[in-house]
Amino acid sequence: MIARILSGGLLGVDAFVVEVEVDIAQGLPQFATVGLPENAVKESKDRVKSAIKNSGYQFPARRITINLAPADIKKEGTAYDLPIAVGILSASGLVDLKDKPWLFMGELSLDGRIKPVRGALPLAISARPWKIAGFILPKENAMEAAIVESHPVFGVDHLGEVVDFLNGARNLSPTIIDRAEIHKKERLYQDDFCEVRGQDSIKRSLEVAAAGGHNILLVGPPGSGKTMLARRLPTILPQLCFDEAVETSKIHSVAGLLPKQEGLIRQRPFRHPHHSVSDAGLIGGGTIPRPGEVSLAHNGVLFLDELPEFKKNILEMLRQPLEDGEVTITRAVTSITYPASFMLVAAMNPCPCGFLGDSQTVCSCTPQMIQRYRSRLSGPLLDRIDLQIEVPRVPHRDLADPTDGEPSAAIRARVEAARAIQEQRLAEFALHRNAQMQARHIRRFCRLDGEGRRLLELVTDRLALSARSYTRILKVARTIADLAGEENILQPHLAEAIQYRSLDRKTV
To answer: Are 15 and 144 part of one and the same domain?
Structure first.
């Protein structure tokens, strides 16, 4: 007897159809799985056998061969447990599929319970053109698959439920959600800019960074509020549009990090990896490449605290995603590209002891120590950071001030207004924010008057700015003009943008 069951596999953030073929033949009891299965797939035979027996069904004592087609693509994960079990029951005559092409995915426990798996959302998106009756998958994954609204989605808890449903002995209600209602839910943040005392100039620089999607580096002594400020940056970013939410949710679904109760990420990601992170953890990788922190921060913020403490080779790997908005991971058997368009927010001390330039504590570092500490950050990496801001110590009078500062909602309103201007201006190029502009866009939208050109020429010569730093200043100035509602970049906008290159000024 042969049964054919549909399932799906993952290749990056996309999915492909996997046909699970089950052949039960005469011969000594044997269970073989072919079609490039990795270890978790090979081990499914023990889970499937126990799950079928403990669910009250008879496991055939015959020669069982499982083929996962297409056989030239490696299969990994535990999502094939359920389709394999259903295929065995169908080939044994215990399940009547009635020629309906259901798509199954799910991990089986030994008692027949169905556990959640990774990748339900990208599978549902890729399955839009497929001719299937619907999805049968773990209940915890039902909401993310139902977001797509392409086929009926049935969430199940136990193998027995699946068998009864397929045989017509049980009715299951499809999972139905209101996409618009979920997306409109108010974002809930525990942090707010109103809690920040003082640091008005730093909050202004973060507002500029948020408005244009610019990368920013905060340099200051310990306790000056760098981490506190960075954690509040997502609260002033515009809300994810539905397409951005789906794209971000796909990556988190592949990584197994999607919230099970909602099925859709509504807040912009804020990823904060420790400086001991490996290159695969930050950029992505593995035998079968998985998304790293740069991809999990897609459409959100990647915060790197104590930036010089990261390994230099890992920091250099950031240059490609910062420039291209994606990261390509190549292995012997495959090459996978993950989206990685994020805002980089980094923080560091000005020197090894942390008190260089501090008004109250004397720095104990020698010039050689300071040079060696800062040399951990290469020039090409710093060139890709648009705003480099000095964060001073907060004076006591500001710390003791009982009045709240400006709330995040007020700042976010200005950021959204500036983003709307950029969306309209860059719509014909399919860009969304000033940080994405290339040379041809800068020549068109960042024109300067005579005074502005003379100022930028003077600064470029005195600071020996690279071409990349030059264009970054223009893009930041364009964002400042957008915040002010000005059509043209004026000299004050350009002067403020130059002021945000503090590490360049140190080289003079």
So the answer is: yes
Is residue 113 domain-shared with residue 247, that is, in the same domain? no
What value, to the nearest 5°, has the Cα angle with vertex 114 and ends 112 and 118? 145
How would DSSP label each residue in 201-253?
HHHHHHHHHHHHT--EEEE--TTSSHHHHHHTGGGGSPPPPHHHHHHHHHHHH
> Phi and psi dihedrals of 268, rounded to 5?
-65, 135
pLDDT at 435: 94
- The single-letter code of the amino acid at 263 is G
What is the value of pTM for the model shown?
0.91
Q: What is the pLDDT of residue 237?
A: 95
Specify whether 29 is located in the same domain as 93: yes
Region of residue 283 (phi > 0: left; psi between -120 and 50: alpha; otherwise: beta):
alpha
Which SS3 state, helix, strand or coil, does residue 121 take?
A: helix
Query: Strand (E) positions, 351-396?
Result: 387-390
Predicted pLDDT at 251:
95
* DSSP-derived secondary structure letter, 195: G
User: Peptide bond before 273: cis, by omega within 30 degrees of 0?
Assistant: no
Q: Which residues pair with 347 in a beta bridge?
A: 218
CA–CA gap between residue 149 and residue 96 (Å, rounded): 26
In the chain, the number of structural domains is 3
Q: Residue 298: name the closest of 262, 346, 250 by CA.
A: 250
At 414, the amino acid letter reads R
Instruction: Give the C-alpha separation, 508 to 168, whole Å.
Output: 79
Q: Facing residues of 390 across strands?
A: 219
DSSP state of 158: B
Q: Work out the percent of the chain whose per-residue pLDDT is above 90.
A: 73
CA 6/CA 276 separation, integer angstroms:
41
Handedness of CA 179, 184, 190, 192 (dihedral sign): positive
Tell me the mean pLDDT in the region 417-425.
Answer: 96
pLDDT for the residue 331: 78
- Whole-angstrom CA distances from 441 to 387, 428, 429, 475, 486 are 20, 11, 9, 10, 18
Give the C-alpha separation, 153 to 161, whole Å: 14
Residue-range definition of the domain harbouring residue 39: 2-177
Residue 432 placed within a domain: no
Predicted confidence (pLDDT) per residue in 77-129, tens digit = 999 999 999 999 999 999 988 777 999 999 999 999 999 999 999 999 999 99
Residue 375 phi/psi, 5-degree rounding, is -70, -10
